[in-house]
Amino acid sequence: MEPKVSIIIPTFGRSDRITRAIDSALNQSYNNIEVIVVDDNDPKSIDRLKTEENVSKYLKNPKFKYFQHKKNLNGAVARNTGIKHSEGDYITFLDDDDEYYNDKVMQQVNALSNLDFSWGMCYTGYKKIDQFGKIQVSAEKAEGFLPVQSLSKNLFMGSGSNFMIRKEIIDEVNGFDETFQRNQDLEFMSRILLKYKIKYVNYMGILIHNEIREKKYTYNETKAINLNYKKRFSKIIAQLSSDDQNKVWLILSLIDLRAALSFKEFGDAISIYRNSKLNFIVLIKYFYYILYRAVTKKSFGFKL
Questions:
Q1: Would you say residue 135 has pLDDT above 80?
Q2: N or C: which end of the chain has fewer CB within 10 A?
Q3: pLDDT of 6-59, one tens digit each?
Q4: One domain, residues 205 and 250
Q5: pLDDT tens profile 209-254
Q6: DSSP assignment, residue 58?
Q7: How far is residue 55's CA from residue 258's CA, in Å, rounded to a whole number?
Q8: What distance in Å separates the CA atoms of residue 300 and residue 90, rounded to the nearest whole number?
């Protein structure tokens, strides 16, 4: 019998786009699926009302499930709610403003079904469209044990809509950490990648929509976000070998340096360079990598 796949779609504040995501999930070429929408909108909000209206046409579909939170919680809680109600052997997630290409689930099921249990999850290629209509294409193909790449924000999967995971492994790691307001997908994936391998599936599986302009952060806000990331992830990073820990902190320092330079905060850039003891050759390689990505419009991780 074909493995069952649960596609979990948490939604908040995007009632105008949710049907696009649902349609792309229900229209998968792989048949044995269930689509679970978890509504995290406040019950008294316009988005809750509009979401109810928009999903009503799917309620008679036996593959579709719809659950509502009694109050707005967060994305991690919504994902855990979906996991709780799932019946799949494999779990995948879909952000409410993204969409799957038709064979995404089939390609990932075929990949995981032909691998032993040491391979806990897999991901596909993606396309990302910005507010100007420009398209970025993924070129990431890394696979195997990749906790360093994940924890250093250097594994380019596009979004949490990408990966598919064995249900037993989600149960083993106790799902998402509900205390995380940011980087929920990354924290979840990093805990899995400490123990299990990840497989790259050579298929363009997702279209990520970034047409809606996101908030632009100031330099101080960016610094605070990066610092908070280091604090929240330090316990997971500490589980790596000393050599791998050094690699993670090195790449995070490069990210800090890039932010300082992009905001023309040259004093901070010099301090970051000195305090992190960055190798000059690594620095040149990193900025060549950034330039190459910008010119080619391709997305992939930096290799030390």
A1: yes
A2: N
A3: 999 999 999 999 999 999 999 999 999 999 999 999 999 999 999 999 999 999
A4: no
A5: 987 656 678 999 999 999 999 999 999 999 999 999 999 999 999 9
A6: G
A7: 43
A8: 26
- In 88-177, which residue ranges form alpha helices assigned H by DSSP? 104-113, 147-151, 167-172
Chain centroid to CA 214: how far? 16
Q: Give the per-residue pLDDT at 158.
A: 87
CA distance 252 to 272: 11
Pair 217, 171: CB distance under 8 Å: no
Mean of pLDDT values over 152-156: 93
pTM of the prediction?
A: 0.93
Last residue of a domain, one of 178, 210, 242: 210
Whether 286 is covered by a domain: the verdict is: yes
State the total domains in the chain.
2
**What SS3 class is residue 295?**
helix
pLDDT score for 57: 98
Residue at 99: amino acid letter: E
Three-state DSSP string of 81-109: HHHHCCCCCEEEECCCCCEECCCHHHHHH
The strand pair at 99-100 and 197-210 is best described as antiparallel
Distance, CA of 146 to CA of 157 (rounded, Å): 12
Residues with Cβ within 8 Å of 163's Cβ and at least 6 positions away in sequence, in order, are 92, 93, 121, 122, 123, 157, 189, 198
Range of the domain at 292: 219-299
Structure tokens at 241: 């070998």
**Residue where one domain finishes, among candidates 146, 178, 210:** 210
Handedness of CA 25, 107, 194, 153 (dihedral sign): negative
